[in-house]
Amino acid sequence: MPSPRATVLCIDGPCPQAAAYARMRMARDACSPGRRNTALQCVAAKAALVLCLFLAAAQVTAASPPMPLSTGSTTDASLSSAQHAPAASATASSGASEDPLFLPAELRARMRDTGLYAPGPERHRLQRLVAFIEDDTGLGVRYREAATASAAEVAARREADCVGFTLLFLAMAREIGLRAQPQRIAHVLSWQGDARTVYRSGHVNARVRIDGRLATVDFAADGLIANDPPRAIDDAQLLAQYHGNLAMQALALGDAAVAASHLRAALRLNPHDASLWSNLGVLHARLRQAQAAESAYLRALALEPAQPAALANLIALREARGEDVSALARRLAASQARDPFHPVLQAARAIALGDDAAAIGHYREAIRRMPRQPRLHAALAALYLRAGERRQALAALGEAARWSEGTDRAWYRAQREALEAER
Question: Interior CA angle at 66 toward 65 and 72, to 5°?
Fold first, then answer.
């Protein structure tokens, strides 16, 4: 699946709406009619629900499809309490006092030398800033999973997930006088790395007011499907996500003390985030503190009654004690029945188990719920092709092209033509 690094500056266009936002890069021409937009494709990385992913989730790897279309494996907080997560190679800091939005003097000097402080239309200043962050002649920041870091660390390491990128962008934008604020999308599906692994997570990015209009700035790594529009959050909520991610990275590395420190910092900043409470429960469970874990899960469910990770983890905890969990199981099933992403995650698990027939059924259900998502049609095409159903694969690729735009549409059409040529 093509996923070029790109930046889209959607100004007063359809991008903030849920369906259009999920296809931001493809729909960039609609964002600013009559103008050429620079850069940025939406991506999914880690924000709120990613915290659940690190420790309340199962990750499996699907067999490679016969063509480069995403069929998917999954990391999903809502259905499993297995303790596996993406590699967290970034070292989690043991201190929670450093300002994650701080810009070191040497970076500010480089910004001056590059002309980022130069006056001019806000739109042009924003474009210069985005280019400086992304281009190799500037900072050359690249996307990497589990790379939550402060603004200064991102600039030094030249890699970040969406939390780290958003911190860097906000700090730099404000430094040069742009009015920037963080945003959050509560639920996304993303295809990362080899495009065969599906993540369910949250996502953060930034909004900027440019000449009286709003622009959305996001970091590109791979595609995402968003079922909710982004909403503005404050710095405290963003910093809570920062500490929450570092907590889960630390726990994945076996450092419960650092994880606890960051979770305490996160909950001081945002005590109303159900995912943080669920992850606190995971931490207590890892430390064999069952009563404290249960209390944290219940706190999460008091804030968000259908929180999938908290429900799944509470079910596992009570089942281990031999308790009746039928009522909780019904709540979880009802939540999944309303969840448009759930069939995709079911499909990915079926693929990991070698049950392509079941996966096809799940993807068909996902398409019934979200018919305009090209990645779903592409994943179904790959499964059909692996099953030897060439006609159905061609039809699915046609639907993927139908609901795509620009380079993605051209790519799907090229895949379909290549498949037809093999007859």
Answer: 15
